[in-house]
Every structure is written in C-alpha cells, then in structure tokens.
Design goal:
By secondary structure, the protein is an alpha+beta fold. Helices cover 57% and strands 14% of the residues. It has helices at residues 19-39, 45-76, 102-133, 142-145, 150-169, 177-190, 193-219, 231-261, 266-269, 283-289, 313-317, 329-332, 348-358, 377-386, and strands spanning 5-10, 13-17, 81-87, 90-95, 271-272, 298-303, 306-312, 334-335, 362-367, 370-376. The strands form 3 sheets. A 4-stranded mixed beta sheet has the order 1-2-3-4. It has a 3-stranded antiparallel beta sheet with strand order 5-10-9. α2 packs parallel to α5, α3 runs antiparallel to α5 and α6 (177-190) runs antiparallel to α7 (193-219). The chain is globular.
C-alpha cells in the first residue's frame, strides 16, 4: 500500500498527502496564527485561527499548482505522470521515468517556478489594488497591514510566499528545480545523463552542506540573510539542508539504477520456482515449515495450480501467536485480484517502479496466468552489486 492519504484526482493525476505533510501543515497554521495576532490584536482567537487555516490551505494549493505545472508539461512531452505527493517540504510529481531529452527536462522544470512567480505577482497585484481601494498609498509594512481586513492580509502573505517559493526552487541544488535546470544544461553539453546527474547532485550536496553550516552558525548567534539567527531558525535550515543532501544522493542512485537496468528483463533478475503454500495451511505450519527454514519474506499461495494470493511476514505478524493454529493462510493472504504482477519478458525497471508504487517487497511473475517466479527488492540490490555499483 502507498503511504499517505489519497485526496482525489486532477487532470487524471492522483493527489496524495504524505503523513509528514500533516506536521508541516499544523506548524504553518500555528505560526500564521501567531503572526496574524501580532498584526491584528483586535482579532478574536477564533478569527485568527480561521484565517491562519485558510492561508495554510491556500499556500498548499499554490504548491499543488506548482507541481501540476510540472506534471501537465511532462505529459505534453510524452511522459506518464500518475500522482503528485505533497510532503514535509513541498511536493513532488511522480514521473514514471527521466525526461527523454535535456530540452524536455528544462521545459518540465522551468514551468514550476514560473507558476509560483505568476501566482505571487497576481496575488500581490490584487492585494495592492485592494489596499489602494481602501485609500492607502503607504508601503506595505506590519503596521500598515494591521489596518486591513482578513482578505488583504491573506493576499499580501500568500503573494510574497509564492515569490519566495519560486526563488527557493531555483537554488541550484539537485533535485530542486534549479538543480534540475542545471542538470538539463549539463546534459545538453555532455550528452551523458548519468554524468550530468552526478555533477548536478554534487552541486546539490554542496548547497546542502552550506545550509547545514549556516544552520550551525545561526545556533551560535550568526545572522544569515533572510533566515535570521537563533536555534529555532537554524534547526529549520539545517533540516532542509539534511533533506536536500539525502535527496541529492538518492536521485543520483536512482539514475544509476535506471542505467544499470536499461534493457534488462524481469526474467534475468527473478527468483524462479519460488516455494508456494496452500491456502488451507495454518499460520502455525506456515511459520514452522516454510518461514523458519528460509530467508523469504513472502510466499505465493497456490490452489489448483493457480495463484490464489500472497502471504507475507507482515500478514503473519498481525495474527496473535495463540491464534496461529486456528488461522489459515487464506484468512490473512492478499487475494490474487489485489496483487500487481509482471511478466518475465517485461522490463526490470518497470517492475521496480511497481514495487515502489505498491510499497511491497516483491511481485509475482506471471506468464499466461501461471506463476513462474518472484521478483524481489533484494534481486535488484544483488544485480547492482554484480554490476559493480
């Protein structure tokens, strides 16, 4: 199962909320309630929290618009995009594979920041018009903002934060948009996606470590432009740096893996003729006759020569120990109709994508409705090791 919450579809693209999004949503709402309270001391607690909630939801709608721009452009470039996930630091469009060319990557990437800038400028213009209609010609400061109502307050904040979002994404730290733009340029120059990714990821790591160093300096009282100073601000900047460093490394590893798997079929990686169990087996016999004698994490369930489902260690753990003798495999297995499968002639890269999307350890390999093997996460790791990576 995918982690997080599916909230709907837009343009045929599934929208998901990662669990980490809930944390940042609460923090943003909390901070905005405090911020608006500083500017509007006359607002009631209910009004302050209500406007903060609306502003937070509007901000994440802006992030979603940013990611939709990426996804729609990717589709125009002939790529498949099944979902967008909003998480702790923003959002990500889940592209099925790397862009087909440097030009495609540049176009897919640049529309995100441009969308944020467009939203920022439009919202800022609306707030300016609203302020002018109220008869104020003073620059927008905290003192001036305190004179206006909820709508103008939200417009001013949302306009500025979208511009900041656009600028932040242009930082040349892969896999941020700026890093992807850098990769598209390096890719065009070198005609080598892996080399371009390695260089862009290296820049991303340098940017990440610069953030971490700045965060440590802030904790000791240094003043960093825009981020300020202090332990709390430093923790946020350091957390962003750590996340960016991890994402840079993982993104490069992903490209290397795709390169290693290029042209490789499932049949070359899969485990042939895996041990199977009957749906009538008890959990107790499954554990003692199969699980304890192997290092397998899942077992195909076969009935009358056909795949009936899959039972995993996770399924077993859900059953209390005293219930094992009275619980059958059929009662806890995942039915075949709910399983994703691949063919032995299919691409190994596509099988890995399905494993990640389903968040499982393995997939059954089927030919003409018959089980011929399993392909597992560990099979990809072994292939990488044998390939010298």
């Amino acid at each position: 199962m995918k982690s997080g919450i599916k909230i709907g579809k837009l343009f045929g693209i599934e929208i998901h909320l990662d669990w980490s999004w809930l944390l940042i949503f609460v923090l943003v709402t909390w901070n905005l309630s405090s911020l608006f309270g500083q500017f509007h001391e006359d607002w009631s607690t209910a009004l302050r929290w209500g406007i903060a909630l609306i502003a937070s939801l509007s901000f994440f709608a802006s992030v979603l618009a940013h990611e939709l721009a990426h996804s729609i452009t990717a589709r125009m470039q002939g790529m498949q995009v099944r979902s967008i996930t909003l998480f702790l630091f923003g959002g990500v469009s889940n592209l099925q594979r790397n862009p087909p060319s440097p030009k495609a990557e540049f176009l897919i990437t640049i529309v995100g920041p441009l969308t944020s800038f467009a939203l920022g400028f439009v919202l800022t213009a609306l707030s300016t018009v609203s302020i002018a209609s109220l008869g104020s010609e003073m620059p927008i400061t905290g003192e001036v903002l305190g004179r206006f109502g909820p709508v103008v307050t939200v417009l001013v904040w949302l306009g500025s934060v979208n511009i900041i979002l656009g600028v932040f994404n242009l930082i040349p730290g892969f896999p941020l948009d700026g890093g992807r733009i850098l990769r598209s340029v390096l890719w065009a120059i070198t005609d080598d996606l892996r080399r371009a990714t390695r260089w862009a990821a290296g820049v991303g790591q340098l940017v990440a470590w610069a953030m971490i160093f700045a965060a440590v300096s802030m904790a000791f009282g240094a003043e960093v432009p825009f981020f300020g100073t202090g332990l709390a601000n430093g923790l946020w900047l350091g957390f962003i740096g750590w996340f960016l460093n991890s994402a840079s490394v993982q993104s490069y590893q992903q490209v290397v893996l795709e390169d290693v798997l290029d042209g490789v079929t499932v049949e070359k990686l899969m485990r042939k003729d895996p041990p199977t169990v009957s749906p009538a087996h008890s959990i107790d016999s499954l554990v003692h006759e199969y699980v304890m004698g192997t290092d397998d994490h899942a077992f195909p369930v076969v009935e009358d020569g056909r795949l009936a489902g899959m039972v995993t260690l996770e399924d077993i753990r859900k059953v209390p120990r005293e219930e094992w003798p009275r619980t059958t495999v059929k009662m806890v297995m995942t039915p075949a109709a709910e399983l994703e499968s691949v063919s032995p002639e299919g691409e190994a890269e596509e099988a890995l994508r399905k494993i990640r999307e389903r968040d499982v350890r393995q997939l059954p390999v089927m030919r003409d409705g018959e089980l011929v093997g399993l392909i597992r996460r560990r099979d990809f790791v072994r292939w990488m090791q044998l390939s010298g990576h």
